[in-house]
Known about the structure:
8 strands; globular; two-stranded antiparallel ribbon; 3 helices
Amino acid sequence: MRSRTRSAFTLIELLVVIAIIAILIGLLLPAVQKVREAAARMKCQNNLKQLVLACHSYESANNALPPAGKGYGWCNANATFTGDSQVYNLNGLVLLLPYIEQGNIESRVDKTSASQSLKTGCCCGLVGNTSGTLQGNPSNNAAIALLKISTFVCPSDSGIPTLDSGSSCYSVSSGAAYKTNYDFSTSTGDFSCNYWRASGADKRMFGENSTTKFTDISDGSSNTIAMAETTYDVHNGRTAAWAFRGWVMTGADPAAGINNWTLTGITPKPGRLGSWGRIGSMHTGGCNVAMGDGSVRFMNETTSTILLTQLARIADGVVTNLP
Length: 323
């Protein structure tokens, strides 16, 4: 008797195999995504830690922490908070470059020139710091803003990483300036020129022209927020570039809450902060914040704004237990 052999799968058998493979992929995909997100969150925590440790190194070398920014030209000048006579529009992150192994980029910065040329308010009839003089030639620093620095980037953020190069409120460059996912803990009060100098009990670790020393943080550096995450996407584009301060790029203010996507009159969109100066991330349920001692914590988005405000202030006399 001759034996009979099969040369191939039947159609039904092939479909069963494909179905089994599809089911296995469906089961594995969420696990892979969780692993990738865990790795991204860890990368963010490491970036924040590096930046706060860089602040420590800067303070040791300069006897004060870096300012969140220097010489804003777009800020709201009034009788109480006068603007600087010299306009630089500098983001303090630039000052940290030598301490995060980016000295080659820092050496290209023209420190005698402004980081960008904005000297006016970009809405609402606000004229900005008209008495200040724009320093040097801002175009000398335009190319720096086009560089992407990995330490300022959170891999979880899938938003648009660059600013609109056509906006007069942001960049003098011929291209799109890169944003940052991390910023100094400041107050949105920095919208008014030199608010930090007169902020009293609301004083934060950083602000425009701030000169904080660790000895000034009487609430304790381990109980005070130094830096926090922010998203690329913010309603109306009011977000921050790493190389300069433009319209309402005041920094990251914890007082507005974490992952606050809301703003009156707009439809909330998770991943897009509702307004400028807020903190948040694309991580599920909260964002990373770095304390003044260099420790990094993931804080839940349900954390109360009262607690966050207390943690942001450096010397209000309220020592808060961390959640």
